[in-house]
Write a structure and sequence with these properties.
single chain; alpha/beta
Length: about 600
């Protein structure tokens, strides 16, 4: 009975303390596309990203009911960093969905202004009645001065906010942006800490709430050799000292770790003194030469775009062309033969066909219609070069395609109990080769991965001059996933190879499962901007880049890289082998 009454009391007090309107909730994911367009248009910075904001401690006053219910301990606010606008993952401030959508648009417009540095934010006095951590109204005036058409929207939102019941007088109005949260980093810790290597995200394996960012800080691992716990009865566990034990790293998965991390205001990270070589070796060390893929040459120097300097850094990367070690000639796997027969029959219709061409200056026989027109023109006094023949000629498809596949470590993740992503990519490449060999189009197949800028690995599966045969199939099946995704260098070299082909239409097809990243600074906007510049260079050469991805988050960055109509998301990875040849047929249909 006591538990039953307690549950009812909890529901009643929580519902009474709630200051939101769930029935009118608007989610960031539903507004992301429109907000992204608005943000980049107003800021004139195409590289700005929108991310879900981390929940921070609520410093504003809470009502008595909220204190009793223990509600509103955290809140999601909006703030702007130089390259990212953080917005709440959902808004239910107003009882009408239209107002909540307007609030998203207003915060995005406000976020298009250059962010105020924390030092400047501390030095500017706030308006009377405004909370200490809110940006003063100057940015609002600046935005309304620049875009007067936003004034009615702002006034409507302000009036709706002031009309809400039970709003504490010093509560933060949702119409302003906060300064970026400042997380202190000890100087000693900063000197010791190294950036953790980025992990490629595997499709379908994101943790719940993975889009929401947490605040973090770095610190040193305490050196205490004995533990000490001091407390007073009225302040239990208020003083603690760290006690290092042998199991500071745990190989066993913790199902509650993600939920526990979401409850922390700040996550502190320290470097462990214990050896973890068995883990680091997987991501950092190259295989021994006897086990590594076979290098072809000494490597190729390539440039890289540094958006911060607005400069193309010459010979900044080194790309190594490699052949998969252990590749043996092999026939098409039996499980793919039925699908390959269907693909070949469908694509044989695209083979060059012989057709009669009229109005030729020479040919196999006289074109009667052309001859009559020619004689008529002569009677009118018009003298032209006689084109009165017709000839049966082959109508060849004048195109070349290079498919570049991502073989980074993330493709080693399992889609089901039977197959990994890399297994499905290999099947897609095999069926793609079967399809294009049926059309007699010129094509090449390559893969890539990377381990910093000096180790961009470019796997030659099939060159343009090679036939699609058992040797190529063996290379495809011997390709192994590993390392990271330095996409810009791979795109540049693939563009160089494709640009050397004498074809009217040149298709650069990129197959990937995630965004560009690597061990060094090639993470976040740096990698995106370098890849975007490499794709712009490819278009200037007359190439047609197109991306096929299996990343559910691709809509956040691929429109910036390839353009709105030059990429496609395959939501079910298992359908990739079937859809890839179909997509090629649509892209090359003449």
């Amino acid at each position: 009975m006591e538990e039953w009454v307690g549950k009812i009391w909890h529901r009643v007090i929580t519902r009474s303390a709630r200051r939101e309107y769930p029935q009118a909730r608007v989610r960031l994911e539903d507004m992301r596309l429109a907000l992204g367009v608005l943000l980049r248009a107003l800021s004139r910075d195409g590289g700005l990203q929108i991310q879900a904001a981390a929940a921070i401690g609520n410093t504003a006053s809470r009502t008595l009911l909220q204190r009793v219910a223990g509600a509103d301990l955290k809140r999601q606010a909006a703030w702007r960093e130089p390259e990212v606008l953080h917005l709440p993952d959902s808004i239910a401030v107003f009882p009408q969905q239209a107002l909540n959508r307007d609030l998203y648009l207003w915060l995005t417009a406000l976020g298009s202004l250059a962010p105020l540095a924390p030092e400047a934010a501390d030095s500017v006095p706030t308006a009377p009645g405004a909370p200490a951590d809110a940006i003063p109204p100057d940015p609002i005036r600046q935005l309304l001065t620049r875009y007067p058409a936003l004034e009615p929207r702002y006034q409507r939102l302000l009036a709706a906010w002031q009309a809400l019941p039970a709003v504490p007088p010093d509560a933060m109005a949702p119409l302003t942006l906060l300064p970026a949260p400042k997380v202190p980093a000890p100087a000693a810790a900063t000197a010791l800490a190294e950036p953790a290597p980025p992990q490629d995200s595997a499709p379908g394996q994101q943790a719940p709430g993975s889009d929401q960012r947490q605040q973090g800080e770095r610190t040193e691992m305490p050196e205490g050799k004995s533990g000490l716990l001091l407390f007073r009865l009225e302040s239990l566990f208020s003083w603690t000292e760290f006690l290092p034990v042998n199991r500071t790293t745990d190989d066993d998965p913790d199902d509650d770790a993600a939920r526990a991390a979401e409850d922390l205001d700040v996550i502190t990270v320290a470097r462990d003194r214990q050896s973890s070589s068995h883990k680091i070796r997987l991501n950092l060390d190259l295989p021994a030469p006897d086990y590594d893929d076979l290098p072809q040459g000494e490597g190729i120097a390539l440039p890289e775009w540094d958006y911060r300097r607005q400069q193309l850094r010459a010979d900044h990367c080194r790309l190594q062309v490699m052949l998969p070690r252990g590749a043996q000639e092999m026939e098409l796997p039996s499980r793919l033969r039925a699908g390959a027969r269907q693909v070949r029959r469908r694509f044989e219709a695209l083979q060059p066909q012989r057709a009669w061409l009229g109005r030729q200056q020479d040919g196999a026989e006289l074109d009667i219609d052309s001859y009559i027109l020619h004689r008529t023109d002569r009677c009118r006094g018009q003298v032209d070069v006689p084109a009165v023949y017709r000839d049966c000629r082959e109508q060849a498809r004048d195109l070349a395609c290079l498919l570049l596949a991502d073989f980074s470590m993330s493709t080693d993740s399992w889609v089901s109990n039977q197959a990994r992503v890399v297994d499905i990519v290999q099947e897609a490449l095999l069926l793609f080769g079967e399809a294009l060999s049926a059309t007699r189009d010129r094509f090449a197949l390559y893969g890539f991965s990377s381990l910093n800028r000096q180790q961009v690995r470019f796997y030659q599966l099939k060159a343009f001059a090679e036939a699609y045969d058992a040797t190529v199939r063996g290379r495809i099946m011997a390709a192994r996933p590993g390392y990271y995704t330095r996409m810009g260098a791979a795109v540049r070299y693939a563009s160089r190879l494709l640009g050397q082909e004498a074809a009217q239409q040149k298709l650069l097809l990129l197959l990937t499962d995630g965004k560009p990243n690597d061990l060094d600074i090639y993470e976040g906007r740096y990698g995106l901007e370098d890849t975007r510049m490499a794709l712009l260079e490819a278009r200037r050469q007359g190439l047609k880049p197109f991306c096929v991805t299996i990343d559910d988050k691709a809509g956040d960055y691929l429109p910036r890289l390839f353009g709105q109509g030059s990429w496609v998301l395959v939501r079910r990875v298992e359908e990739l082998p079937r859809k890839l040849p179909q997509l090629y047929g649509l892209l090359t249909r003449q």
